[in-house]
Amino acid sequence: MVINCLDGRTQIPAVEWMRKTYWVEFVDTINGDGRDKILAENSGGAR
User: Fold this and answer.
1) CA 4 → CA 40, 46, distances in Å?
2) Which candidate, 1, 3, 4, 45, has a CA 20 to 30 Å from the CA of 15?
3) Widest CA span of the chain, in angstroms?
4) Domain residue ranges in the chain
């Protein structure tokens, strides 16, 4: 699973990296704004 930005430019590269790095065929994605900030700040909770 990858947690990713809504910006479409990051979608394909992130999935391709996960497939190559972890040798998986399919990658589930969670896309939304500010997800990286929530993780970085360890603030938890949904927005």
Assistant:
1) 13, 15
2) 45
3) 32
4) 2-41
